[in-house]
Amino acid sequence: MFDHRDNEPGTVAEQIDDSEQELKREIIEFVKMITWFLVLFFVLKTFVIEVYEVQGPSMLPTLETDDRILVFKLPSRLSRWRLFSGLEPLDPGDIVVFDNPEDVSKRYVKRVVAKGPPRRLDNTVVAQENDPDAASGPRVSVVISEGAVFVNNQRVPKDLLPDDSAKHLAHVDEVLLAPGEFYVLGDNLAVSKDSRSFKAVDRDLVVGKAVLRIWPLTKFGLLR
Fold first, then answer.
1. Sign, CA torsion 202/208/211/214
2. Residue 87 to residue 33: CA distance in whole angstroms
């Protein structure tokens, strides 16, 4: 007698085995996808971009406690490599996030007021006509006097400082910035701890430039 079961595509056991194999393949593909996502997230967070939550009043009125800002890290990261040593990732007026020079477990957000002399692509420093300390190489001089900030004896434009800056800028002795160093101040000078106390910030401490406020949504926009 002819048995119709001979025409079936496979036994129940074979079908179950095929289903298990398919499930295993799907699990492996899912794990691969999650792994690649985590690697991409780690690379982006470490080298490209990061969200930073502001704490404290030192940048009022520009930034308030609990504001969340997007920090662009890539240019600052690249500038530490010899191949990109001529890259200038920050300029006066930029808002920057950096590790506290006195305690690297803490981070600050301040505004760049001055930066050291630039480097050429061959990693040598560009000479300055008004070099205040030629014996130790080119430097940029920063002095706070009479309620104003002077960079290489030139008064810093008022638009880089808060409106009430004059009454909060007591005399601070000269600070000489080497290439890759920055002088930073908080927008709220009355309470800000900044380069008036810890002097220059080295580029190796810089996390990146704050470019965008993403929270709260009512204040979403580019930072200036």
1. negative
2. 35
CA distances from 19 to 24, 31, 84, 142, 214 (A): 9, 18, 53, 72, 46
Helices marked H in the chain: 12-43, 74-78, 195-198
End-to-end CA distance of the chain: 89
> Token digits for 142?
């920063």
For residues 113 and 178, give the distance between their C-alpha atoms in angstroms, rounded to a whole number: 14
223 token code pair: 């930072």
Q: What span, in angstroms and rounded, lies between the C-alpha atoms of 72 and 50?
A: 7
Length of the chain in residues, anyone?
224
CA-CA distance, 124 to 116, in Å (whole number)?
13
What is the C-alpha separation between 82 and 87, in angstroms, rounded?
Answer: 10
Q: Which residues contact 126 (CB under 8 A, 6 or more apart)?
A: 117, 118, 119, 120, 138
Whether 152 shows a pLDDT value over 80: the answer reads: yes
Q: pLDDT tens digit string along 93-119?
A: 999 999 999 888 899 999 999 999 987
Query: What are the tokens at 5?
Result: 């079961």
